[in-house]
Amino acid sequence: DSARLVRGGVTVLDNLSIRVRAGESVGVAGVEGNGQRELGDVLSSLIALDDGSVTVDGTVVRTGRAGAMARAGVAIIPEDRHDSGCVLTMSIADNLLLDRIDSVARGGLISRSEQRRVALELMREFEVQGAGPDSLFGSLSGGNQQRVVLAREMSSKPKVLVAAQPTRGLDVGAIEYMSSRLRAAAESGIAVLLVSTELEEILDLSDRIEA
To answer: Which of these, 170, 167, 172, lies nearest to 199 by C-alpha position?
Structure first.
């Protein structure tokens, strides 16, 4: 259904309808401040739509309910990784398992050895360059911080990956890495929704463009 969202008396999303198929990358282009961040907030379960709905694999997912999108298979690389993506003062391992720490719990207690093992595997797979899983997330470069976010979201085996400004503030090497990973995600059958103000990025990575 077409979506509508009002914030502070201002309509920020109106008559919005986007469909992303499995294995497809759809780009949402536009000038900064035209509702892109709010779209990401809706798909992160942070805010609820005033009208319309979000459907994942044929099932309507309630917006604004904590964790609902993640449980439905929606992963997100947020627009601001420091604001809503990770916690600078926590370890890399803690950030990698931030939303599913219970997966490394034994008898109700966190197994630090298991947490460290899983974190090391993800750091190797996503080529995170850091002192180790116990080092602070804030000690990483911007590119490596973004790799941690990507690793965490992709390890949930999502049906949909929402990438909001995924290369903002990154150097050339990190941009190339993120771009290749987003292409690979779509090729693996994940539905990728790319939200970016960078037209070149949209044109490079998208199969279809919504403006």
So the answer is: 167
pLDDT digits (tens, 9 = 90+) for 89-122: 999 999 998 887 778 777 778 788 888 999 999 9
Cβ atoms within 10 Å of 68's Cβ, excluding its own: 15
- Are 172 and 151 within 8 A, CB to CB? no
Q: Are the CB atoms for 20 and 55 separated by under 8 Å?
A: no
Question: Token pair 């090497």 is at which residue?
Answer: 173
Per-residue pLDDT at 81:
84
- Average pLDDT of the residues in 29-34: 84
CA distance 137 to 99: 15
Say if CB 147 and CB 128 are below 8 A apart. yes
The reported pTM is: 0.91
3-state class (DSSP) for residue 202: helix
Both tokens assigned to 78: 């947020």
pLDDT digits (tens, 9 = 90+) for 141-182: 999 999 999 999 999 999 999 999 999 999 999 999 999 999
Question: Can you spell out the DSSP letters for 82-150?
Answer: IIII--TTSBHHHHHTTT-GGGGEETTEE-HHHHHHHHHHHHHHTT--SS-TTSBGGGS-HHHHHHHHH
Tokens 């080092």, residue located: 135
